[in-house]
Design a protein that fits this description.
Keywords: Signal. The protein is an alpha+beta fold and 181 residues long. 40% of the residues lie in helices and 27% in strands. It has one domain: NTF2-like, domain 1 (Nuclear Transport Factor 2, Chain: A, Roll). Strands 1, 2, 3, 4, 5 and 6 form a six-stranded antiparallel β-sheet that branches.
Length: 181
């Protein structure tokens, strides 16, 4: 279960290319859905709404991680919520900006569209230390719903690539962390 924690941190706190030339453009309706989804996701992170944060992770990822952990999906979801609650005792998202106007489009090998979206977080750790974290979020349109992931470590890339072939080709900028006094 300790392998799950780094993945949860990457997916839920978002600490922190190569794009297919044939990437399709999102429809106006899909862009509106993305705007709504990113606003809801930002609110869920700021209010520690763990169910909403978990629901923003693609079901393919939940299935893959549950199988790797040798537990059923419901049990895996319970473990993730429990670990997110533990993380919330140490980390608080004070502010999040998701820069949709600067998003970049792409498409996975199976035709699933995605966007890379810049993010800017202000978090408080250990109750008093504030940090600004600039990174990138991957928004994935799967089964007519937007989902969000973040992470470029080997474990996350392997899991994401199993669920979304071609994810490993995405080049995400390294997160920039700056202490705020």
């Amino acid at each position: 279960m300790r392998r799950i924690l780094p993945i949860i941190v990457g997916f839920s706190l978002l600490f922190s290319g190569t794009f297919a030339a044939h990437a399709r453009s999102a429809t106006d309706e899909e862009i509106k859905m993305l705007t709504d989804a990113t606003n809801n996701y930002a609110t869920a992170l700021q209010t520690s709404n763990f169910d909403a944060v978990l629901n923003a992770i693609p079901p393919r990822i939940i299935q893959t991680l549950a199988a790797q952990s040798k537990v059923d999906q419901e049990q895996f979801r319970q473990i993730m919520v429990s670990q997110m609650k533990q993380l919330a005792e140490t980390y608080k998202v004070d502010k999040i900006t998701i820069g949709q106007s600067k998003k970049r489009a792409g498409e996975f090998e199976d035709g699933t569209p995605y966007y890379i979206i810049p993010t800017d977080f202000v978090i408080t750790t250990n109750g008093s230390e504030k940090n600004q974290i600039k990174g990138e979020l991957v928004a994935i349109l799967d089964n007519n719903q937007w989902y969000f992931v973040r992470g470029d470590d080997a474990t996350t890339l392997s899991t994401m690539s199993a669920a979304f072939p071609g994810f490993e080709k995405i080049k995400l900028s390294a997160p920039e962390v700056k202490k705020i006094k």
